[in-house]
Specification:
The protein contains 31 helices and nine strands. The chain is mostly helical and 727 residues long. It has four domains: 168 residues, Serine Threonine Protein Phosphatase 5, Tetratricopeptide repeat, CATH 1.25.40; 120 residues, Tetratricopeptide repeat domain (Serine Threonine Protein Phosphatase 5, Tetratricopeptide repeat); 191 residues, Alpha Horseshoe (Serine Threonine Protein Phosphatase 5, Tetratricopeptide repeat); 111 residues. InterPro entries: TPR-like_helical_dom_sf.
Length: 727
């Protein structure tokens, strides 16, 4: 997937004090997630126009005091006050070109209302062209800077609205009148329309330009095009070149400049980091993402979101949680239209961590929100369907994992709660079917289907982590998956990718019940899969354990499962497995007795298995117990103690895993249920350490709402100040 970063440039054009001048927006196309990047060089700034352009000086533009006031408010970023003033301006004079232009930009930037913004920008263009009838012959008698800005802003909004044919028409019309031509800007919509040869020609021409803005834009477009073409080393080379060029130019930036006034480096770093993963260079990907994170720029290319994914895939959960905090902090610093541009992608990154952490209920709420409020794809190379298909795959994984959690809870819940869990399971099966249908619908195209199984390339379901791709097998069917995998192997020429496809083939084999093949392929994959693929390695080890147990090789199965749990304990729950185990207890009391009964009924353990396998130790007495899970070799995988009784007056004091059906006065059965639930939460999920407070703060919804409230309050203060001054 490629993302476009588009940031408003609020810099007055230095033409003359008597000429209305309008700053513009710089964009750079990029991929899978390359990102369109803003460049500090403004193509509509007269200082950036080549002397050979042949354009006359812009004619003075007569305007009213009300238009001057609206424009200055917009330039000062007082958007709410400007909105109120511009509405009054248009009520008095609906033919104000400046009024419609400024209103359009406010609707886009402050509210993210792109359809209305396009309507207002279209009105500004219509009024201008009706009044001045611009042609190459009469430009010297018109305020052409204003017209050129309107055209540029209109094509920008058209791109964000995914109206790429119209965007090209606007670009061509602009180039028929004005220099410099918007060569690089053509590449992105052409690429999104699948016209790759044309896109590459425009991007290459721009990359060789003497103009810094066009050169940077062209290089980033080449990065995006190579990503969409499915290349690996070529993509990395193109994206790294764009980043190196931007980083070199950024050395001359004013250290005190605002985020919208500096050279765009973060977006190039983000793209290059993604390209590094395509080339299987995770260390380089992390370095580049961290380099992007050192700057604050107005872009949807949030480097912390990429780091969340990298750290999660590698099982570095403490760092993933810290990156989550930074991801939300970064988003809060963005202007409103960019803040909401990738809200769904931000939610999905959070939900992915929640899946690994076993916080499935919150994870489902977050991913439901992402699917109900999808991001606009005008700034990305992937389609809305690709994103929604990927989000549906994640939701299905969360829902199925939640079903396993509920199956565990049914053991220690009361009769009424158990009945509710059973009813919910029926509803979940229908929801799973609906999500599977959505995914199959998205993957009806062969190219998209193949791209979804190719590691770290664009064009398929995006974003899907490597350790979740195997979930496509039961959705598509083993037969279809096997055919697609053959096509994928034919498309790849790098032996380093073989263990990934061996892993997927093992998934197909276990789904078909071919345990011998599954065990052989899983072993083969584990021999050479990169160590940084921690969660994928855990999944493959779990598959190997399933296959070995089915073949009667219990000792091998135990070793595989122990290996899987050391990397990702949650994989056992996500695959619905039961560990052969025995209990070693020296605990006493009624609570301990009840805990033993609950463990015997748990779907996570097979206590009737011969040979023991894993060991569950239970120690303590009364209402102070400790449960531990030991691997066959004796190593401790995880321990949990009986939680303290939560304070009913303080929800924040309630442990995240506390049963929801407890009463205010707990009896021994309640304490046994709390102990069993805490043990399962610790034993069968990655230790992330998220409290209820953490879950709320990392969600970001409350803090983003606070930011919006602060912006509204600032607008009110601006209004009061303005009115007091006028008095």
């Amino acid at each position: 997937m490629s993302v476009s970063n588009e940031t408003p440039r609020k810099r007055l054009l230095a033409v003359s004090l008597s000429v209305l001048t309008i700053g513009t927006i710089g964009i750079i196309g990029a991929t899978a997630t390359a990102v369109f990047a803003q460049d500090p060089t403004d193509p509509t700034d007269p200082r950036s126009i080549p002397t050979s352009a042949g354009l006359p000086a812009a004619k003075d533009f007569a305007r009213t005091p009300a238009e001057d006031e609206v424009w200055l408010l917009y330039q000062d970023d007082k958007l709410l006050t400007a909105r109120r003033k511009v509405e009054q301006l248009l009520e008095d004079d609906d033919d104000s070109i400046v009024g419609h232009y400024v209103f359009a930009q406010i609707l886009r930037r402050a509210e993210g209302n792109l359809p209305k913004a396009m309507k207002q920008m279209g009105k500004a263009r219509e009024l201008y062209e009706r009044k001045y009838k611009p042609t190459v012959v009469n430009l010297d008698s018109t305020p052409w800077l204003l017209h050129r800005e309107i055209l540029y802003a209109a094509q920008t909004i058209a791109g964000e609205l995914e109206r790429h044919e119209y965007q090209l028409q606007l670009l061509d019309y602009h180039d028929s009148l004005y220099d410099p031509r918007l060569t690089a800007e053509h590449a992105w919509p052409l690429m999104l329309l699948g016209r790759y040869d044309e896109a590459r020609k425009y991007a290459q021409k721009a990359a060789e330009s003497s103009d810094e803005f066009q050169r940077s834009l062209g290089r980033n477009a080449m990065c995006a095009i190579e990503g969409e073409a499915g290349t690996r080393e070529q993509r990395f080379a193109a994206c790294l070149s764009a980043y190196d060029d931007a980083a070199d130019r950024a050395r001359g930036d004013d250290p005190f400049a605002r985020p919208d006034e500096v050279t765009s480096v973060t977006v190039h770093a983000y793209n290059a980091a993604l390209a590094a993963m395509t080339a299987l260079r995770p260390d380089e990907a992390e370095r580049l993402a961290q380099a992007g994170a050192t700057r604050v720029e107005f872009t949807p290319a949030n480097p912390w979101r990429l780091l969340v994914r990298l750290y999660t895939d590698q099982g570095r959960m403490d760092e993933a949680v810290q990156a989550l905090r930074e991801m939300q902090a970064w988003r809060r610093k963005m202007p409103p239209h960019l803040r909401e541009q990738v809200r769904a992608e931000t939610d999905v990154a959070f939900a992915t961590v929640l899946l690994v952490a076993g916080e499935t209920e919150t994870g489902l709420e977050v991913v439901d929100r992402a699917i109900a409020n999808p991001d606009r794809r005008g700034l990305t190379s992937s389609s809305k369907d690709q994103a929604l298909g990927a989000h549906a795959l994640l939701r299905r994984a969360l829902r199925q994992t939640h079903a396993e959690v509920e199956a565990e809870r049914a053991v220690w819940s009361g009769t009424a709660e158990s009945a509710r869990i059973t009813r919910d399971a029926v509803e979940r099966s229908l929801q799973d079917w609906a999500d599977a249908e959505r995914i199959r619908g998205v993957l009806h195209d062969d190219d998209r289907l193949v791209a979804s199984f190719r590691m770290y390339v664009a064009g398929g379901l995006e974003p899907v982590p490597s350790w979740l791709i195997g979930d496509l097998v039961p959705i598509l069917g083993a037969g279809v998956s096997a055919v697609v995998l053959d096509m994928v192997r034919d498309a790849e020429d790098d032996a380093a990718l073989d263990p990934y496809y061996d892993a997927f083939e093992a998934e197909i084999a276990i789904h078909r019940g071919r345990r011998k093949d599954a065990l052989k392929l899983a072993n083969q994959a584990l021999d050479t899969l990169p160590e940084f693929e921690a969660l994928l390695r855990a999944r493959v080890a779990a598959i190997a354990g399933e296959a070995a147990l089915g073949l009667g090789q219990e000792q091998a199965a135990l070793e595989f499962w122990a290996t899987a749990m050391q990397r990702d304990a949650g994989v056992i729950r996500r695959r619905g497995l039961a560990l052969p185990a025995k209990i070693d207890s020296d605990a006493s009391g009624a609570v301990a007795t009840r805990v033993l009964e609950l463990l015997d009924d748990s779907p996570r353990f097979d206590l009737d298995a011969s040979g023991g396998g894993f060991t569950i130790t239970l120690q303590g007495s009364g209402r102070q117990l400790e449960l531990c899970l030991l691997e066959p070799g004796g190593g401790v995988l995880g321990c949990a103690s009986t939680p303290p009784e939560p304070d009913p007056e303080d929800p924040a004091d309630k442990p995240a895993s506390t049963p929801s059906a407890i009463t205010s006065e707990l009896d021994d059965d309640d304490y046994a249920a709390m102990t069993a639930e805490a043990f399962h939460a610790r034993a069968f999920a990655m230790p992330v350490g998220l409290s209820n407070i953490d879950l709320g703060s990392l969600d970001g919804t409350a803090t983003i709402s606070d930011e919006a409230n602060r912006e509204r309050m600032q607008g009110l203060l601006d209004r009061v100040k303005s009115e007091s001054t006028s008095e």
